[in-house]
Design a protein that fits this description.
alpha/beta, elongated, single chain, 27% helix
Length: 94
């Protein structure tokens, strides 16, 4: 009887992406909302963006949607970039 033993080591993938640093001041910056289409996510994120803009002098500039189960497609990220959004609010809600 032959027993095969598999070693758990192997090639590793690329290093994980890091988050961009947060801007120290939001005044005058453009806020984007990335709604994942879960129930109430758009409402919650929209209200958060509006209140954040009121408190900081930022501007709610653009809202995009994506499928909650998938990463945002390049086209969605491209539209946020085209709208010159500097801060994006995204998250989950149920």
């Amino acid at each position: 009887m032959t027993v095969q033993v598999y070693a758990p080591d192997g090639a590793t993938g690329p290093d994980p992406a890091t988050l961009a640093p947060s801007p120290p001041v939001l005044s005058g910056l453009r806020i984007g909302v990335l709604d994942n289409t879960k129930p109430n996510a758009g409402l919650l994120l929209g209200q958060m963006a509006s209140r954040l803009a009121e408190r900081t002098g930022a501007i709610v500039a653009h809202t995009e949607t994506k499928n909650a189960a998938l990463a945002a497609p390049d086209q969605v990220l491209g539209r946020l970039t085209k709208e010159m959004v500097q801060v994006v609010l995204t998250g989950t809600a149920d």
